[in-house]
Amino acid sequence: MAEEKKKKLPERGYKFFRATLGVLFKLWYHPKVYGKENIPKDGSILITANHKHVYDQCAIIMSTKRVIHYMAKKEYFDGKLAWFFKMSGCISVNRSIHDENAKNQALDVLKDGGAIGLFPEGTRNKTDAFLLPFKFGAVSMAQKTDSYLVPVGISGDYKFRSKNLKFYIGKPFKVGNMTLEEANAKLAKDIGDLMVMGGTVRKETEEAKEEKKETKKAPVKKSTKKTTKKTTKKEK
């Protein structure tokens, strides 16, 4: 039997929304994007960024003519806007399980020389942490398909006519001879460094993190001794 032809993800909707909604996003938020030339014009790539807002992918989408198939949580495909995510060529990901179907769809795109977009943190960072721990999906898929990883650092505020919303696109790299742990650490470092370039966030050093931990652990001692003041008479 002949091998069944794999169904390609839609692209027309993506291009239409990029041309229309992209303009609205740009007019409303005034994002500044640096390093657009670092996105390869062809070949398989994974565009990866820190995740702080639901619109994080918008400025990246406008930075290249390539179609980027973003991996999005399954809940988006179950709601009223399911049609939008399907037309945009997004890949549904069930985060409650190790979603092999979503992973295989993404691998097929990469094997065809396409572009995948995802956030290694796995969810939006709503904590005080600089970055959430990175999952290994991005570096694993990059290794299996010999694809480039393109790091993006996002910083600033999503406000009307924002003055500090910045996207820094870094130099792409391949996993190569690195272990997945080494590649993931490099990806996190690159994205972190790009975030700092925006000027609105500061990366904590390991020493500062340890100092915070020790400060929290240390018991607060209350002094029970009363201090007495000695007064001296000035000589006339």
Write a structural description.
The radius of gyration is 24 Å and the shape is globular. By secondary structure, the chain is α/β, with parallel strands linked by helices. The chain is 34% helix and 14% strand. It has one domain (12-205): 3-Layer(aba) Sandwich (Glycerol-3-phosphate (1)-acyltransferase). A seven-stranded mixed β-sheet has the order 1-7-6-2-5-3-4. Helix 3 (82-87) links the parallel strand 3 and strand 4 (91-93). The protein contains seven helices and seven strands, in the order αββαβαβαβαββαα. Helix 4 crosses helix 5 (137-145) and helix 5 (137-145) packs across helix 6. It starts with 11 loop residues before the first helix and ends in a 19-residue tail after the last helix.
What is the helix content? 25-40%
Q: Characterize the largest beta sheet: strand count, sense, and whether it forms a barrel.
A: 7 strands, mixed
Q: Which H/E pattern describes the elements? A: HEEHEHEHEHEEHH
Q: Tell me the β content.
A: 5-15%
Stretches where pLDDT falls below 50 for ≥5 residues? 227-236
Report the strand count. Answer: 7
Look up the CATH topology: Glycerol-3-phosphate (1)-acyltransferase
Task: Please give the domain count.
Answer: 1
Instruction: Name the assembly state.
Output: single chain
Helix-strand makeup class? alpha/beta
CATH architecture: 3-Layer(aba) Sandwich
Bulk shape? globular
Q: CATH superfamily assignment?
A: Glycerol-3-phosphate (1)-acyltransferase
Strand order of the largest sheet: 1-7-6-2-5-3-4
